[in-house]
Amino acid sequence: MYAEMIDRDVLTVLDKLAPLQTVTKRESSSSVKTCNWHSAKSRSDKRECRRLERKYRRTGDQGDYRTWRKAGRGFIKSVNDARKQYFSDALNDSVNCCKSKWLTIKHLLHVTKTTVVRTCLTAAMFCQYFDDKVALISSNISVRIPFLSPPFVPLANSVPSFTTFSSVSLSQADALLLALVKSSPVDVIPVCLLKSCHTTFATLLSKLADISFASGKFPDLYKSSQISPLLKSPALGVDDLASYRPISNLRTMGKLLERLAQFQFRPHFLSAPAFSPFQSAYRPLHSTETAALFVTNNLLRSSLPSILVSLDLSAAFDCVSHSILINRLSEDFGFSDQPLTWLRSYLTGRTQYVSFNGDRSSTSSICVGVPQGSVLGPLLFCAYVSPISRLLASFGLIHHSYADDTTLILSVESPSTLLSLLDQCTTALCNWFLFNGLQLNPKKSEVLLVGSREKRKILSLSLCPGLTIAGTTIDLSTTTKILGVIFDAALSFDSHISQICKSANYHLRALAHIRRFLSVSTANLIACSIISSRLDYCNSVLNGTSSHNLHRLQAVQNRAARIVLGVGNRVSAEPLLRQLHWLPISKRIVYKTALITFKTLSVHQPVYLSSLLIPHTPSRSLRSSNLNYLTVPRVTTVFQSRAFSVSAPRLWNSLPVSLRRLADLSVPALASGTTLSSSLSASSTLSCDSYPDNLLSFKRALKTYLFDVNLPVAS
């Protein structure tokens, strides 16, 4: 095979030019990493200071004492300068790689001890445990299936065909090689070599892809994965196999080959009617924030109390049936000929082994599941579970999926009707999962009752005794965490904001500890990476939250600004925010909401948000017809006015016309009364996979407008 020939030839050249050598490294006696921030000057000043100290101890002369103390003050200054330079250089070296930057900042803020897991567990025990876990789920499913009947799932409207691969260009392969960031522990060819010789390897990679696609065979060399067990939390028992999470590592060249295949597969998958429009994972123009906005909007717009159900699957990615997946790709997505043969080869014949504490297990075969740690695995899983969207729609339920996380929303008109519908729907969904080799875990699923305090108090009494999911009785939760956002019964997000403040203050204390060693630009970079990222995550769902919660978040931001600029707690925060060019919390929420609105209007994706933003069309020709207004739905309560479908159009209409005209509203809006499902095919043809060129212009103009309105320069 061509893949083996690449490895052989590259290793032959490396053995001649850079043969492997064994290096003996002395182990440090301390578990804490030694400081490596000293400069040549600080080391020289340290030696001079120690020499003068010894001289004073020997002579006892006061002149020697003053000379020693003066040298000590100079040494302290040079040490601080060296430490400041070290922190600055460490961040500048990692600024181009997000992961490297995060790891560098974490290391600078929090000195962690290198923990060595001492346990009696072996690699063979882990390998057996991971295999038995999947086998147990399969056994439980095979016992239950004979007594069940598969639920009816409506068919997709049409099936587009995908019959041939297109050739791979050198520019595609070269761009992938240059974008490489990290290496894999199972790599034979180092990533640094792939990047430094990217022109040569681009030719090899493109030829490898063309040969693989033409033959319909994925190289066996890239089908083996190394599993590294990782302790989920230090608080868990190190001798418990269930306390570890399997981390899969694949060859980088194999993942590059997958990436080239994904370039051709993904547009076909996403444009197919069978692919769920309510699936936000692993697709462009979608995110956890758009998903959280959709869920929040439906809860807020409901005039009745709602039930929010978060469903849990057991080892979903590891239990995918290969035969069912190949059949679904053929029937629902139109794959055939060489592409289907290539995907069958990609899934089958895979092996894995466990590496733990220098120990390696024997190799075991993988008969089910999509490859963990792969590029195509998540996309194939989303296609595998896409029929559940049509199944849930047949029950009339609002739902959303993010990979294997499924969320249901039901309005409570009658408690008895709700209980019956919830049990029927989740039972049908559970049966569908069973017939597709997956297992729903009702005990880990959560149910949250959302509504006013009075209605919740009345309904909770009638719901609690008979609330069942797939036949399993479930208690109502006080909060539930979905996509990193903590939802509560009143949608006040009090618990979510408390968690943000707790996490941000933890990092701020660490930043304050080393602030004297940082320049303002370095401290600002750390604060933006650690603090602002937490304040901004999914903050568009906080639209309309209480002033108390806004004050709590603003206090965190004010503290961060004072630490970055090195001023006292009594200094007013408003000029500091302007100096750092930080928008206040309330305006950051406005900024994010307006930005999501602009993106959705420009590319008409995600469809579930695009359907909520309807351009205003007056009944007769007016001067305001070309001002890009949106229709604001009428609502009767403040609770409903917080919804994205209401707050976003209202905010958009309040922006200056110069900002609104940057969005293209020329695409006809959905007619009133048109359902989201009926408009999917039309919306998919109108949408694109990238944001418009004027996105950066809109960001700059919007931030300038918010600064001028809310933080005017003092005259």
- Total strand count, please? 14
The average pLDDT value, as a whole number, equals: 87
Helical amount among residues, as a percent range?
Answer: 40-55%
Distance between the termini: 74 Å
The Cα radius of gyration reads: 29 Å
Uncertain stretches: 29-33, 668-687
Shape: globular
Q: Which range does the strand content fall in?
A: 5-15%
Number of helices: 27
Structural class: alpha+beta
**Largest sheet properties:** 5 strands, mixed
Secondary-structure map with pairings?
Layout (H helix, E strand, L loop, with lengths): L1 H16 L22 H20 L2 H32 L4 H12 L13 H22 L25 H9 L12 H6 L1 H18 L8 E8 L12 E6 L2 H20 L16 H14 L4 E6 L10 H10 L5 H11 L2 E7 L2 E2 L3 E3 L9 H9 L2 H8 L3 E5 L2 E7 L3 H21 L10 E5 L2 H11 L4 E2 L2 E2 L2 E2 L1 E4 L2 E4 L5 H21 L5 H17 L10 H19 L7 H8 L4 H19 L3 H4 L27 H4 L2 H11 L2 H4 L19 H7 L8 H16 L5
Parallel strand pairs: 1-4, 9-12
Antiparallel strand pairs: 1-2, 3-8, 3-9, 4-5, 4-6, 7-8, 10-11, 13-14
